[in-house]
């Protein structure tokens, strides 16, 4: 009987990251715990002096009965085969081999003008480039970007597309917006690259029959300061629970994903899982996430986005076909597959 790979997991952000990256990490840990206990033995590594005091919180966050938790300064004493850094880089150096997941390289594509901030945002990437033995990218696009901006050799990068799983364990009631017949959903932080401005202009350009009856719902941390487009009903949800996000996906007439730069495009697959038609930009890695199940528009083109959105909002047969195609796409892009392929990378690094 083979010995499971002993993997330390840099878990500093595990409790507080509610974005797609956090859900990705928690989902993989859940799948490994449920499906592959004979192949992988994860230990969560944290900087806290008394990690045992956090064990219940980590177990609850993962929905598992127990977790292995240790202080990261003891990584060399735990018999680990490797340490996995799932947060875009390394903030500390272990005494064993390390694997880094790079979700995107935005701090290098659009570096901060302030030198101290730029150094802070790029530091952990560069530390990973120097010390990690292997890298995981969620898309061919991100692999190409890592080669271009981080000068990583192609043979050190494995592409493992992210997957999706249900946000809740039970039934989901679709959300509604009072005073609107339907709503278009945007999920994400309103960073410049997410291009919420193009979506706002597109909502203003919808034909009157659609614009008068359709709201825009924005869910994501930092959305409270978003400027509301004139003539469009806008509901700001801000950062929401998994249960609320599932409800928003289920009730939406469409997910609009106008981003100009993504390492993968996690909300695209999440929306598809809940049968929500997806209208997305053709930029970066987004088509790798959506495949043939989304309708695409040229990034930054608000006229085209308005036209495509209006088709989805007014053509019920098209919306039904997109919902079915999206569910089929989500079913083959599962977190189970992502977890298994990530585990295979670890096993190769460990020499199994």
How would you sum up the global shape?
globular
Strand order of the largest sheet: 3-2-1-4-5-6-7
User: Approximately how much helix is present in the residues?
Assistant: 25-40%
Structural class, please?
Answer: alpha/beta
| Span of the ends, CA to CA | 12 Å
Give a written overview of the molecule.
It is a single chain. The chain is α/β, with parallel strands linked by helices and 352 residues long. The chain has 2 domains: 5-163 and 334-350, Rossmann fold (3-Layer(aba) Sandwich), CATH 3.40.50; 182-332, Glycogen Phosphorylase B (Rossmann fold), CATH 3.40.50. It has 13 helices and 13 strands. It has helices at 20-35, 55-62, 106-109, 115-131, 140-150, 196-204, 208-211, 242-251, 266-273, 286-290, 302-314, 316-332, 335-350; strands at 5-10, 40-46, 69-71, 82-85, 97-101, 134-137, 157-159, 182-187, 214-219, 233-238, 254-257, 278-281, 295-297. It has a 7-stranded parallel sheet. Strands 10-9-8-11-12-13 form a 6-stranded parallel sheet, with helices on both faces. Helix 2 links the parallel strand 2 (40-46) and strand 3 (69-71). The longest helix is centred in the middle third of the chain and has 17 residues, at 115-131. The chain is globular and about 65 Å long.
Describe this protein with a few key phrases:
Rossmann fold, seven-stranded parallel sheet, six-stranded parallel sheet, 352 residues, globular, alpha/beta, 13 strands, 2 domains
